[in-house]
Design a protein that fits this description.
Blueprint: E1 6-13, E2 24-31, E3 34-41, H1 44-62, H2 96-100
Antiparallel strand pairs: 1-2, 2-3
């Protein structure tokens, strides 16, 4: 059986470049030689709880199960189990239709 994702470390850190504030932590989630490094702001308890949920989701996703993240679909396809259409992307200038029309 393949190794599962796990929290490797969570350590106090300076704010990442271009961000301000205090109480930053740098975390590493790993599986074998694969590493995910990220930064979160807050208190250690809430950050650790969030990371534990992320690890559970990563491990379930690796097994083909999805707890909180539905499988990704190609643009224009209906998500499995729904009847709603996926609409055009919305850009900063408005809806996808407006952007396509050059408005």
């Amino acid at each position: 059986m393949q190794e599962a994702f796990k929290i490797v470390s969570v350590e106090p850190s300076e704010a990442p470049d271009d961000l301000d504030g205090a109480n930053w932590y740098c975390y590493i989630i790993g599986r074998g030689t694969n590493r995910i490094r990220g930064y979160r702001q807050g208190n250690l308890t809430s950050i650790t709880e969030s990371l534990e949920e992320i690890v559970v989701n990563l491990n379930e996703r690796r097994k083909g199960r999805y707890l909180h993240f539905p499988p990704r679909t190609s643009r224009g396809q209906k998500p499995a189990g729904t009847d709603r259409e996926v609409g055009p992307a919305v850009t900063a200038g408005g809806s996808g239709d407006q952007a396509a029309a050059g408005k």
